[in-house]
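pinning this so it doesn't scroll away 📌
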Amino acid sequence: MISDSAPQRLPKYVSQLRCGLGWDAQAEAELDLDMAVLALTADGKLAAGKEGVIYAGHPHHPSGAIQLLNDNITGAGEGDDEQLLIRLQVVPAEITKLLFVVNIDCGEEQQQDFSQTENAFWRILDNANQQVLLRSALSNPQWQGITTLFIATLERIETQWQLASCLEASPLNNLNELLYGYLPA
């Protein structure tokens, strides 16, 4: 597992990654966390425009390299409430970086934020051996008003992938607002 600032080169034998997002269900109000991945080109724009965003409304990348497996809207149950698979050997060459994002669906409208989440986490594993490569806690009482978090990046450097945590609050409050900065001109 890596820390919040130390990038890690993935071993060449790692061919498939699994991301997991989990949180505890809330008794007083449903809190819907959503995981998304932005597939970016070398110039920092979305590969294939909006097709380069994988989220509940668009769960598959056209290449088949990235697939959101499920969309849990309550956090009920143990372990990963949402999962996403990445097949590294199938990621198109034009995609040089994957940016992982977690947001609270309708968080701003419902006055929900990450200070209200309980036991929320995001993690990425080597799917073959289930080794956790990075884990981030997403519940923070200081994140009042924060509904979108940048979690991590996976960047292709020459022929290897490098994973780095970039856990930080987005100044934007929903995924749609966030996308406009990454759309090709």
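📌 and the second one:
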Amino acid sequence: MSVTVRPVAAQDRSAWDILYQGYATFYKVDQTADMRDRVFGWLMDASHETSGLVAQDAQGKLIGLTHYRPFASPLRAATSCFLDDLFVDPDARGSGAAQALINGVAEVARTKGWAVVRWITADDNYRGRGVYDTLATRTMWITYDMKP
């Protein structure tokens, strides 16, 4: 399957919405239409730190998405990139869309001079981890979340 990656655009809204709902469902996160409106607003706001890419098939159908943002890495005295979300339509898995999206973020990072692209995934996301292990180095870090 031929996959093209490009920045998310306003006309992608309805297809992006379906994909992002699928992402939330995959991770069992309750997500409302208002939440998706807010995130898509961020993606359309050039001054917001969050940006996005979409993957489309040869017919132009959106089959995947990813969101990313810069973050400061004081220990390295560098700016790096955090890949926040990555989702490929289940019917398009195995198409190379995940790799293309990650490589698209890596290209953005290279262009901007960011030191590293970092992301997290669920321990039981075996299929995703199989892809990630071919593209990046798994780190030793354990992630914690704390409500303020």
